[in-house]
Amino acid sequence: MTKSIELSNVTKNYLEEYKRILHKMMQGMTYVTITCSISENFIKQILPHQIAAIKMSENVLQYTTNIPVQNLALATVKTSTEMVENLEALQNRCCVVQNSEYELYEYMCTYKEITEVMFQAMCAPPVSNSINVNYLRAMIIHHQGGVRLAQNVLRFCICQELIPILRCMIQEMCEQIEAMEKLLDGLQDC
């Protein structure tokens, strides 16, 4: 039987805000009016994901004194803000690329599988009194889900302007995942 950890008030405050951000992200990614455009659907679905990355990073920045965690959180805010701006700029142009019902069905089936795994893992991460560890664990799961979502949409006929943004998103998230995993290993060894 595992002994539960008594959490500090600071950790409780951090986790309370994390849960609020996560809940908002899950609602935003789930309750989207689906159209015949995979490009448009993806943009509407991924925007809450990117906004959550910004909010979760801003949340940890209120509490952490760990400089590498601060740097990673600031990098996440910067890249996710740029991603949101790029996606919003494309939204009205990408909706003209339409897909078949079969493609839409295939896209949505995989989308639901990815988001269910990501939501479940982010709702029940191991919790510690280290806000840095909690943040890194959650953001690794978040970014892994984002990579899979971007890879899923690239399987279909989509707006050509969206493709370089998706490739950039995948590359940036993979680089951040690698940096977060290294930092997490170091923090857990302490």
TrEMBL record:
UniProt domain DUF305: residue ranges: 41-184
Domain of life (superkingdom): Bacteria
A Pfam family annotated for this UniProt entry: DUF305
Protein name per the record: DUF305 domain-containing protein
Source organism of this protein record: Lysinibacillus piscis
